[in-house]
Protein: UDP-3-O-acylglucosamine N-acyltransferase
Amino acid sequence: MEFTAGQIAALAEGVVEGDESVKINTFAKIEEGRQGAISFLANPKYTPYIYETLSSAVLVSRDFVAEKPVKATLIRVDDPYATVARLLAMVDQLMNPPRRGVEQPCFIAEGVEVPDDVYIGAFAYIGAGAKIGSGAQIYPQAYVGDGVSVGDGTIIYAGAKIYRGCRIGKRCIIHSGAVIGADGFGFAPTDHGYEKIPQTGNVDIADDVEIGANTTIDRAMMGSTRICRGVKLDNLIQIAHNCEVGADTVMAAQGGVAGSTKLGERCMVGGQVGLAGHIHIGDEVHIGAQSGINKDVAAGSRLFGYPATDVVSYGRQALAIRKLPTLYKRVDEIERLIKDNK
Amino acid sequence: MEFTAGQIAALAEGVVEGDESVKINTFAKIEEGRQGAISFLANPKYTPYIYETLSSAVLVSRDFVAEKPVKATLIRVDDPYATVARLLAMVDQLMNPPRRGVEQPCFIAEGVEVPDDVYIGAFAYIGAGAKIGSGAQIYPQAYVGDGVSVGDGTIIYAGAKIYRGCRIGKRCIIHSGAVIGADGFGFAPTDHGYEKIPQTGNVDIADDVEIGANTTIDRAMMGSTRICRGVKLDNLIQIAHNCEVGADTVMAAQGGVAGSTKLGERCMVGGQVGLAGHIHIGDEVHIGAQSGINKDVAAGSRLFGYPATDVVSYGRQALAIRKLPTLYKRVDEIERLIKDNK
Amino acid sequence: MEFTAGQIAALAEGVVEGDESVKINTFAKIEEGRQGAISFLANPKYTPYIYETLSSAVLVSRDFVAEKPVKATLIRVDDPYATVARLLAMVDQLMNPPRRGVEQPCFIAEGVEVPDDVYIGAFAYIGAGAKIGSGAQIYPQAYVGDGVSVGDGTIIYAGAKIYRGCRIGKRCIIHSGAVIGADGFGFAPTDHGYEKIPQTGNVDIADDVEIGANTTIDRAMMGSTRICRGVKLDNLIQIAHNCEVGADTVMAAQGGVAGSTKLGERCMVGGQVGLAGHIHIGDEVHIGAQSGINKDVAAGSRLFGYPATDVVSYGRQALAIRKLPTLYKRVDEIERLIKDNK
Structure:
């Protein structure tokens, strides 16, 4: 596959600056540019690379002003990142068309209906009473427990595990190693150790959700642990039993949400954040990486730190701590003055 | 299955208040109540819901005093949470009876004895010299390495991996994605990079232990990494080589214990906690979420923070930090006064 | 297998002190010593155990001075830890010789060449266009996606998953549950939620790398996420898309590296550390456990804390915080004096 810069510009409704006949056959990051590649410049941190990149073309914003000569052909567009995303999607669809067919050996319980247009990989397991939507792709070694329903167009990658009775919506992506519906962590203390509290609920994942590799979402004690429409969870995240994650909320890797906590819609949660149990986070809350949250948070808040405070207070506190040695010196000096004065 | 509130009260040795003939056929959380459901009220945070719940019956403690009219039938018991746990266990046993039988294809090495009453799922792998206890349930795609022993009544969920030579006790539950017995992280620096130190020990898990989804427990360099009787580990926990976790200790999700550290009995460790290597935590120590512990801890301690201190000091420090901006102002004022006084 | 202390000393170029005819048939930690075992003393923290150990022999450094009588036979060597590592390696090679042969059923796509000397376990999946190096060991239930290349002598343990198009070098070890090449976490916000940005790159792992259990390394958006020669990653680590981890760098469990960050060579990163995206960490940087790093770090730095500072500043700050209650008392006293003086 090969395009000219001019062809790509036409596709992207962009304006070419430089040689529009230059040939493009791959993508490259701007700092790793090479001949035949197209790159993009969105984060200003990478601007210096545009003067050195070996890439043949670079997508830039319409208002980009070069401060030195640029060798690459520029294609000016409204949003370089969105444009490259769209181009990548086109290539991806060509290179990785949906898989179809049933590889053998796989295990499909009696009575399960398998639509014609699905993919079921070798060593996948489909339990009794499971429902597989049209166009679903279930990769090798995936486990779809008894009574699980998998929506139309959903992809379950190799080795992901869905325990009995859970529901996965349409157009979801569940990455390898994700475990959906393991028992919530519930035990009652007794005189002779802990007694397990059966977790009789399930996990209910709505449409257009993506679940990262090795992320775990526990089934509810009763009712459902809910992941709402459009949620994106990165890798190695823990969602405990009976939580609810609101629509279009995104969480970066290694975050953890303790039991029965509810997150609002359109929240952004940084990496390695911890949320205590039984709290409520409002809509559109942003939480900085590695923060810890142990109480309710109002909609629209911007939180950071441990224990988390709003971003302004956090900055003030951090500065106050950094200046502490100076404060000690000032108090030493005051005490010296007072002593001398007596 | 359907019961009346009166029948459930009889089962639970409780006292009915309201319509004892109301029909119950499911469980629901009190805030998600619906007709035909029974709920429970244990955490006072949820008390307001009892006046609005649509559930047909609610388990409450004997001394609960309603401040407004309650529509649901109340069943007064000694411990609502324990009662609901017992009811859930009864239902769970009816709904999810133990699995039996050997699904094909699975891989069972020559010479392994398979008791009549076990479940071995499709694509499970049982290595040479493995021992499978009576009533064990080994789900699809689980891996039981060479020489592993699995105790009576133990459940190994889909895709859990047990490396060679490890021992799992009786009545354990190992959730999907857990990895038991991967190599401990041991390397010796050399002039040309790190040299691997073979990890020749194993992991030894005693009876009645539950291991969460995607939790990892590394094999010992020599000897055993030990998980003692009754331990409950949540999801995504890391236990390094040669650690020991004492009986009836519970750890919440995403905690990590570095090499050779010993945890006492009946400890409670919060989520995302980190314990350094080669330290000793006494019995009945409680450690708050996200804390970091880097030295020995006496039995019975209550720790919090990073670096962790006892709960009282932690609270004092946190308050002192929050008040810092005020302290700076006070010192500014003092300096101004002294300057004016000169 | 049984050796005398004298034979082991000869092998290790050590000097025997005590009964050189004592029989050794196993290893034990010094604090768990038993008859017939050899132990070692490297960490001075364990010195007290040498006077009590039941082990028959102990490897000690040449300059170890006993302060009390020692019952065990001592073998004095230059580096007891390195010696025991070498002895363990010898035993390990005898006890766990490389596996060979192809177990059935497994899935090997048409056209894949399978060298004679490899191991492919039951239920392993080898996708179309994959390349399997000489002497590779691919354990049961492992997934090697389309077009993946696995270098000579590499071990992929049970259930590890390698997505399409990734490259694994020679003599690597990939532990169970590791996921190599899942999609990077990239989404573009739109009016109707997030749109997925296809991740069209791969993961490129060089030679002599070890990847821990349940660690996840995401494929690049374009280009490669790179793990350089000799890197050792512990369990449950997250490496985001387009990162680069430099040669011989080691990371302890549960650390996370956000997108496009580059780590230098020979760095040591403690457990549960978080690195922000798009930053650059120089060579030979050491980062203490649970630290958070959000900006570039110069080569050779020693960092600690959250937000991380150099170790000296961190110690100074921590002390300043611990002394805060005293500082408040001092300022109270000053204010009292000034008030009395007025």
